[in-house]
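Job type: complex structure
Entries:
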Amino acid sequence: MNLHEYQARDILRKHGIPVPPGEVATAPAEARAIAERFGGKVVVKAQVHAGGRGKAGGVKLAKSAAEAEAHAKAILGMTIKGLTVQKVLVAPAAEIATESYVGIIVDRASQRPVLMVSPAGGIDIEEVAAKTPEKIHRRAVDPRYGLLPHQALTLGFALYRDVKQARAAADLMQKLYSVVYAVGASLAEINPLVTTPDGTVQALDAKIVIDDNELERRPEIAALRDISAEAPEEVAAREAGLTFIKLDGDVGCCVNGAGLAMATMDLVKYYGGEPANFLDIGGSSNPQKVVAALRIITSDPRVKVILFNIFGGITRGDDVANGIVQATKEFPLKVPIVIRLTGTNEQEGIAILERAGFSALTDMDEAVKQAVAKTKGKAA
Amino acid sequence: MSVFINKDTRLVVQGITGRDGSFHAKQMIEYGTKVVAGVTPGKGGQQFEGAVPVFNTVAEAVHATQANTSVIYVPAAVAASAIFEAADSGIGLIICITEGIPVLDMTRALPFVHERGARLIGPNCPGLISPGKSKVGIIPGNICKPGKIGVVSRSGTLTYEIIHQLSTHGMGQSTCVGIGGDPLIGTNFIHCLSAFEADPETAAMVMIGEIGGTDEQQAAEFVKEKVKKPVVGFIAGQTAPPGRRMGHAGAIISGSSGTAAEKMAALAKAGISVMKRPADVVPLLKERL
């Protein structure tokens, strides 16, 4: 789960990390009032779960409260990478002397949290990593001892020559490390970490991604989810216990298991089609999940055919078949459906489908070929 | 011989009285796996299916039954704790089926397991099966056949698809291992490929990877240098949408190396025959054997 910048800043502040002030507005007049409180010179920043918002025009400097209102009016409601901006953060325009980068991610290779810092922070940090990797300093942390003071200070000196600033950065890194375990983050990032002309070190912008598996035991973090900032089909899928990602094609896919779902999409492409989505109904799926899946897939007007690919293990063929039959009773399907069903309770599942007037295949390639043919208006 | 499990595997099922644990314990017993004990705190002293003693702790189960392998079906919130307990009780091989364990829990459990000299397979995996000998986990026994192909995979149902392709074309398996789809796992491709290379009953290997991370590339390097037996590979996610990454740090740490195209190229460069679709597995193996 992604947090908004303002939510991430609140978390950092609560853990003692120096963060400049800022407030959230949902209307232009509100942005103006906040800007007036901050003395007029502010930055207005779109709060949206998409990277590159600065380059998309979602971050603007204002010299006066009136200008802040105008910027907020332009930014609120704008679309960045398919997501509508509903909130802006209004913060005093900071005077910046230097920009650095500090981030913590759980690294698959070392199987540890890794701290990464670079004196070359700001929006082009990825380019820095690609072109001048020597400017990125890393330290894998042993979770039994946490980030030790000398490790943090070494990284602090990689950012600043001044011992006071290096110590401030080291202190901030240790606090950021404790934030990761306190909120269940899979990523916590400060970019940029700035120094002001008077030399103080501050976290100007923050990004935190929460491991979805942490949400059940952290209701206070789960409550931060902003459903209005997410694609509606993905919200519906999550509430039904499904994993769904929208794509641009016309073959609506419904599969059990993420690996098989990806392989099915790949096979659609292999036979000349384009998948409309990734959808994993997961294990032990009950008929209700299948109904929800069909509702989500058919809500996309571009879908020309629905393709089921089920290899029963924990998932039972009869459950899936019952779900399909039940769904077509609740809402008529306007597009053809191709079903591949094999594995656990295959015979029972196929019998249920046949009684309801559907047919089912047992071979994956054959099913995908037929589905792709139907999008091109041909009989397979 | 087979890899990791065999006829001498003595299994304790953690969470044996739960919904998933009881269902799969029965399936494993039917398959012929020696299920010697179960563990559910508070249910010690009971008998599962009138035949398997249930204990309150793994340590008691090990002491009473000499269990040497454990399989975990407990809920995600307590699964890391079950891994710690198994390793602390002297279990040498721990298979964690549970899905949804927080990654930060695994950053603490994995070093603990390693220090005690145990091997963890998973979490979030279907387990493993040596057809005709033993099955630990949830891979359906009826789709497998005994034979000479070693299968290692990050996926669940996609593994079944590949095994199904092999079995229906008369290519049996020595052992099939699902290593799990989580970012932090106890046993990786290299561990499995190296075990298959050393196993006299395995003639060729199939590795099934997917997008994300760089495990497949490292495995390809390993194959190039250390593996003499033929290897056939598949990478799922060629059409997965790009740009679904985790902030800058994700891009920095993996660069462009997590894509399917990059991984397929690495596999091919190491001399691994790369499938374009699951149905290619049989023809490619026949070509190499």
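Summary: Chain A is about 40% helix and 25% strand. The two ends of chain A are 41 Å apart (CA to CA).
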